[in-house]
């Protein structure tokens, strides 16, 4: 929950990621009268359910708690107008934020747009795990930025092998892709397959990828599938019984 993450930000203690609100209810048709039932297509039906982005909208209290936590963490962001898609009604964000600096001195040059809870998980992960792991690299470089994708993108999932297309959490502002880590050198440390390299870069990437599952419910990266060989996909998908997908 957002309030739990907000408390985590204030206490500086890592904890589990925010739960996503329940899935939207499915519309159901009323049972026909046995004496009057006609063709199936003529049965009455109710109004369509609300779009997914609307069902994920935070309450005023949760949104205020999230914004307070971001302020305490030193995240630089600005609130944006609600985001929707004219072609796919489920895509959108009720209360988006555009983040330019996830922690003081750690820039997000792409200024991704996402839900506040996603930004809060990213900030806590960066503070509690990415920065400490970077301190163990040679010469203990200072983390100066994260190379990311745009976060909000209305599209289907990729690389999952699903027989039928399924909406991506990016379409709800629930996901962020991290492509690399900027330490103020000539080029950022890129996310890439490193299995067997046996160097500090491999240890750093393994550490940040595995610890991300403490704040996010889905973590995909090198080793999960070819579509995620060049970035870490971090999202806040709701899963039954708190189960997490960490690959």
From TrEMBL:
Q: Which parts of the sequence belong to the Extensin-like C-terminal domain?
A: 65-246
Composition bias (Low complexity) maps to 27-44
Signal sequence, start to end: 1-17
Task: Give the start-end ranges of region Disordered.
Answer: 16-51
Q: Name one Pfam family in it.
A: Extensin-like_C
Source organism of this protein record: Paracoccus aestuarii
Q: Which UniProt keywords apply?
A: Signal
Please verify whether the record's keywords include Signal.
yes
In Swiss-Prot or TrEMBL terms, this protein is called: Extensin
Organism superkingdom:
Bacteria
């Amino acid at each position: 929950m957002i309030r739990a993450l907000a408390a985590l930000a204030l206490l500086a203690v890592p904890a589990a990621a925010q739960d996503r609100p329940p899935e939207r209810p499915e519309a159901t048709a009323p049972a026909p009268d046995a004496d009057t039932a006609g063709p199936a297509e003529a049965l009455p039906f109710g109004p369509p359910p609300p779009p997914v982005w609307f069902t994920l909208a935070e309450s005023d209290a949760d949104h205020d708690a999230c914004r307070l936590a971001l302020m305490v963490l030193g995240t630089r962001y600005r609130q944006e107008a609600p985001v929707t898609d004219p072609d796919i009604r489920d895509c959108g964000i009720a209360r988006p934020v555009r983040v330019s600096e996830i922690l003081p001195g750690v820039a997000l040059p792409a200024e991704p747009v996402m839900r506040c809870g996603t930004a809060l998980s990213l900030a806590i992960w960066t503070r509690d795990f990415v920065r400490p792991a970077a301190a163990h690299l040679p010469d203990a470089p200072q983390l100066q930025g994260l190379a990311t994708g745009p976060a909000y993108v209305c599209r289907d999932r990729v690389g999952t092998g699903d027989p039928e297309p399924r909406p991506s959490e990016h379409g709800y502002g629930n996901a962020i892709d991290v492509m690399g880590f900027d330490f103020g050198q000539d080029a950022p440390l890129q996310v890439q397959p490193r299995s067997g390299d046996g160097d500090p870069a491999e240890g750093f990437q393994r550490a940040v990828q595995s610890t991300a599952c403490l704040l996010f419910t889905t973590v995909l990266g090198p080793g999960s599938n070819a579509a995620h060989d060049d970035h870490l996909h971090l999202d806040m998908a709701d899963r039954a019984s708190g189960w997490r997908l960490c690959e």
